[in-house]
Write a structure and sequence with these properties.
By secondary structure, the protein is an alpha+beta fold. It is built from 14 helices and 13 strands. The chain is 38% helix and 15% strand. The two termini are 24 Å apart.
Length: 456
């Protein structure tokens, strides 16, 4: 594109045609904006290539982010007709980096669950097997990238919402450190959990998108500039040997029945063997007991939902899980929330201290292969929450700890479904995760694996 061999308009048309053909069966996008995308592409062509990381590249924003003049439903029937007047900062950052939005990618209601099957719209189904879910909450973004409807996509991650769908759909998903992306830092939220990061088919693509969104805010002095990108350089070089801990226990073990499926264990063993062969040192590791974690995290999740601006009849439009979270959060006292935050703050310091002897910690990405549509259940909120924990036991504690983590698609099951592993890094060391990821990618060549929809 920078050489002029492909124009932004040609690229946009390519993806819009694919979305028109494939999205009705996949549910990746809730809103498509072809006219605005083509107008934006033409504008970029007139201005010519600029020193911005994402110049002319197609993207889309998660339906939790407002774009002025475009319907933003937050995955909920309660906001089905909402059209914001102003865009969220992350949308402005993507625009400033040169990206072209093709529309809004699907999310579950308010991004709360680990699956993307909202009652407000069609589910975002897994391109590898459309009877299965895509994970969540960045499920639409993951489906779009996995099926070739976008080259990459930004997502948000408050308890695993980038890494879960990446693992389910065979992608690289990177949750940055708290504060790494100024427009999605986590600092403005209760508990500082949700951050913004990339989903992509390769480590280098993920690094490129991270370079774009980690640039200065458009409200900073001067425009964002791009010099090749520190993260992209780390991903391309893929250098270094590191000391790696290997963990299959989780902070949820004291409260829920957590088990590692043979498929998850197989992916972990495959990745560990490859890392050993590449010259990294690995050893088994387990976190110290944390029986207080489950209650504290649940309180925080409920308290976060309590602030959703819905009351009365509007509250009756939300799904059972959402209603349970909202009502439970609103029944809590300030003391309950304060104790939970203090407990998780101590937990954060403990995890960082325990992990400090390693450059990275390796876990399974998910405890099971991708789940069938409807598996989590809609009626019983308690059972639903428990199943989410059992599917994703290694993701939420990374958000609590503010650490970077990357999901990598190292394996396929006998049925041809993707299975991944997670690498958790030290604070601010996304470069190490990208370097290790690049080494594993060269070994496993997952960039050449695609679901059938990709070639359609």
């Amino acid at each position: 594109m920078r050489a002029g061999e492909v124009t932004p308009t040609e690229l946009v048309d390519h993806y819009l045609h694919r979305i028109e053909r494939l999205n009705p069966g996949l549910g990746a996008f809730t809103v498509v904006t072809p006219e605005a995308a083509r107008e934006r592409a033409a504008q970029l062509e007139r201005s010519g290539p600029r020193a911005s990381a994402l110049w002319g590249l197609a993207s889309g924003e998660k339906d939790l982010w407002a774009r002025a003049g475009v319907r933003t439903a937050y995955g909920s029937r309660a906001f089905d007709e909402f059209v914001p007047d102003e865009s969220d900062e992350i949308v402005d950052v993507l625009d400033a980096a040169g990206a072209i939005s093709l529309g809004k990618t699907a999310t579950p209601e308010f991004g709360l669950p680990a699956y993307t099957e909202p009652l407000s719209d069609a589910p975002a189904v897994n391109p590898w097997d459309t009877s299965l879910g895509s994970g969540g909450s960045s499920g639409g973004a993951a489906v779009a990238v996995s099926a070739g409807l976008l080259p990459f996509a930004p997502g948000s991650d408050g308890g695993g919402s980038i890494r879960i769908p990446a693992a389910a759909t065979g992608l690289v998903g990177l949750k940055p450190s708290r504060g790494r992306v100024p427009a999605g830092s986590g600092f403005g939220s209760l508990g500082q959990l949700p951050v913004t990061g990339p989903l992509a088919r390769t480590v280098a693509d993920a690094a490129l998108l991270l370079d774009g969104i980690a640039s200065p805010s458009p409200f900073s002095v001067g425009p964002p500039t791009w010099d090749g990108g520190a993260f992209l350089n780390a991903a391309i070089r893929g250098e270094g040997t590191f000391n790696i801990g290997v963990m299959t226990t989780s902070p949820w073990d004291d409260t829920y029945d957590i088990s590692v499926s043979p498929e998850a264990q197989g992916a972990l063993t495959l990745a560990r063997t490859a890392l050993d062969q590449l010259g990294h040192g690995s050893e088994d590791f387990r976190l110290g007991p944390s029986p207080e974690y489950a209650e504290a995290f649940t309180v925080l999740w409920q308290a976060s939902a309590a602030g959703i601006p819905l009351d009365g009849e509007q509250l009756e439009l939300v799904e059972p899980l959402t209603k349970w979270l909202i009502e439970s959060g609103r029944r809590m006292s300030a003391r309950d929330v304060g104790v939970a935050i203090a407990t998780l703050s101590r937990f954060e310091r403990s995890v960082i201290r325990q992990f400090s002897i390693y450059d990275a910690v390796l876990t399974p990405a998910m405890a099971m292969p991708p789940r069938p549509l409807g598996w989590f259940g809609a009626a019983d909120a308690f059972e639903n929450f428990a199943k989410q924990v059992q599917y994703t036991p290694w993701t939420s504690f990374v958000n609590v700890s503010g650490l970077p983590a990357i999901s990598l698609p190292v394996h396929e099951t006998a049925e041809g479904l993707p299975m991944g592993v997670q690498l958790i890094g030290r604070p601010g060391r996304e470069d190490v995760l990208l370097a290790i990821g690049a080494q594993l990618e060269r070994r496993f060549q997952w960039g050449s694996r695609h679901p059938a929809a990709f070639g359609a």
